[in-house]
Design brief:
Largest sheet: 7 strands, antiparallel
Strand order of the largest sheet: 2-3-1-4-5-7-6
Shape: elongated
Radius of gyration: 29 Å
Strand content: 5-15%
Mean pLDDT: 87
Order of helices and strands: EHEEHEEHEEHHHHHHHHHHHHH
Length: about 375
């Protein structure tokens, strides 16, 4: 059965009565508050354009469908965003930056060919992503770069030798919101690790807002104060973003020179190496943990064989499976001790003793304790 989930949130200010009436008119099934709206559809579809609703009333939007479509969009005041810093991360039909009236909209859409899965109606994804909007207002473009990595991996139009956009700092240090985004969009962790190799580590600087305010003209100060009084801006975050755009130099905002930028094919190759190293490390860790566990069984082997006999005597499926797990432990311990031949002798004796236990023997073959019949 088809299922679609739309969620909108107002961040900078609550909805007016007129805006609530407009949103309520979109569907009788909407769950509406002064700061949010949720629409779900098992049949049918959203009336109108979700991005138009975002532009008119809200600051953030999330969409999911159980066939594998994901969409995350943010609305920003035009005066608080430098569009030229966002556009290098755009990918046709996946990441777009739209300038509309008083706002800039960042829209990310991923459509997975593999399909989606179960969607919890009362999920908290959008609430988790809200801090990312604030981060973008503060000049943090890690969301955009991570989205570009996902887009580059799935876009049918992007060549493998496409050069990456500017790499933001602190890709090695991702907060909870960005980690959730990675999980939600299913971004390859090894690809992120490969990309983060040249990402600078930077502490958030203490920006000289007082000096910047003093440097504004009287006209600009008046305009900012009017914004505060009328409530048309996101107050502190928007004012900080305006000052940052006006006074912060490009070198302070950008962290990587063009000469350091890599092609996506290079990132993918690096990710492959990263994946191999990670898997080798995980395998070594698992092997060491397994050996440590087997060592604890070294002086319990006689008791374990007695336990196996007792389980087999019950002639039931679950005890059989428990016996098989004990046999696997004893086999692996025998290999560790160099006593595999002794273990195999005992297994052959079990095969003869329980030749009429087809269920047990089948499980032993499946666990590769016995050779399969030819």
């Amino acid at each position: 059965m088809e299922y679609q989930y739309y969620e909108f949130q107002a961040i900078d200010r609550p909805l007016t009565k007129a805006e609530q009436d407009y949103v309520q008119g979109l569907s009788s099934r909407v769950r509406l508050t002064a700061t949010s709206a949720v629409f779900t559809y098992s049949y049918g579809d959203f009336r109108g354009s979700p991005l138009s609703v975002l532009e008119r009333c809200f600051d953030a939007m999330l969409y999911m469908a159980n066939w594998g479509s994901y969409q995350l969009a943010f609305r920003f005041p035009k005066s608080a965003i430098n569009v030229s810093e966002l556009t290098p991360y755009c990918v046709d039909n996946i990441i777009e930056v739209l300038t509309v009236d008083k706002y800039v909209i960042l829209n990310i859409e991923i459509h997975s060919e593999e399909g989606g899965g179960w969607i919890e109606e009362n999920n908290s994804w959008l609430g988790t992503f809200i801090p990312i909007r604030q981060a973008i207002l503060q000049g943090d473009n890690r969301l955009l770069y991570l989205a570009w990595l996902r887009a580059a991996a799935v876009s049918p139009d992007l060549e493998q030798d496409t050069q990456e956009p500017l790499v933001p700092p602190n890709l090695q240090k991702l907060n909870a919101s960005l980690q959730s985004l990675i999980d939600w969009l299913e971004i390859d962790s090894d690809l992120i690790a490969a990309a983060a190799q040249i990402s600078q580590t930077k502490e958030n600087p203490k920006e000289p807002f007082e000096a910047w305010v003093k440097a504004l003209s009287e006209k600009e100060k008046t305009a900012l104060l009017v914004d505060i009084v009328t409530g048309d801006s996101a107050l502190a975050s928007q004012l900080q973003a305006r000052l940052r755009q006006k006074f912060a130099s490009a070198s302070e905002r950008l962290s990587v020179s063009n000469g350091e930028r890599r092609r996506f094919s290079e990132l993918a190759a690096s990710a492959k190496t990263q994946r191999s190293r990670r898997q080798a490390k995980e395998k070594a860790t698992a092997t060491a943990k397994r050996h440590q566990y087997l060592e604890t069984l070294r002086h319990q082997q006689a008791q374990i064989w007695d336990t196996i006999d007792g389980l087999i005597a019950r002639k039931q499926a679950q005890p059989y499976q428990q016996a098989i797990q004990h046999l696997i432990d004893l086999r692996d311990l025998a290999e560790l001790e160099g006593k595999s031949a002794i273990f195999q002798t005992r297994i052959r004796q079990m095969q003869a003793d329980y030749s009429n236990r087809s269920g047990l023997l089948r499980r032993m073959r499946e666990a590769k304790l016995l050779k399969r019949k030819t």
